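Closing statement on the IPE sub-project.
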Amino acid sequence: MRQTIDPHNLPQHIAITMDGNGRWAKSRGKLRVFGHRNGVKAVRETVEAAAEIGIKFLTLYAFSTENWDRPESEVNALMTLLVSAINNETKTLMDNNIKLSTIGATQNLPQKAKNQLIKAIEKTKNNNRMTLILALSYSGKWEILNAVKELIKKRVNPKNLNEQLFQQYLTTKNVPDPELLIRTSGEHRISNFLLWQIAYTELYFTETLWPDFRKDDFKKAIIDYQNRERRFGKTAE
Ligand code: IPE
Ligand code: IPE
Ligand code: MG
């Protein structure tokens, strides 16, 4: 059993469902938004750790299609936090040579958030150590349906349709499928994240609530991944 990270067996792409902010706040007798605010530090630590370790793509599930159905005050607080976090953390991205991108129906975000994102994406576009992908107003079913709509619009001949071509219509085109998906807060579900892309992804669940997640927790997940045998439907031989 490995106890340290093997630099020759790194996942290229790690996806994280950052869950448990509300419960973290509630256990401290605070409002849910307090948990969201304290999740920003965990984001910074994880992004820095991923870049330092040599991960090429990090996708963070920040806001799902279903999250729009939360109380308006919480949605508004999350959107305000998104704007300030992007604004404050662009420096971290520049310092670490990280490029920012997004997946999801970002056209549905408030104008302020869209503007802030466009600015940060433009500023970081030539960075090449790692790509940070924020999943915003994202869901796997939305994405697959979106791909099918595009295929129909383009009148793609079904005879030519295969997995490779279909992938080109997903928002993750040109990004390798994640080898590892981490979910915090002890929930053992996918919650509509990257449904197509996680076909053979290794899943890692931790009880740690997102605001408590630190570099060492991230490293632990990678070491756990490296101790697994990925068979892809074949036999071990
Ligand atoms: C994750 O924490 C953040 C978002 C979904 C935006 P939650 O807000 O889901 O926190 P819990 O799961 O209710 O504790
Ligand atoms: C998943 O967490 C979405 C994000 C972390 C952005 P949720 O808290 O929304 O998912 P459920 O409700 O536990 O499935
Ligand atoms: Mg949750």
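The mean pLDDT is 97. With this model delivered, the sub-project is considered complete and its resources will be redirected to Aim 3.
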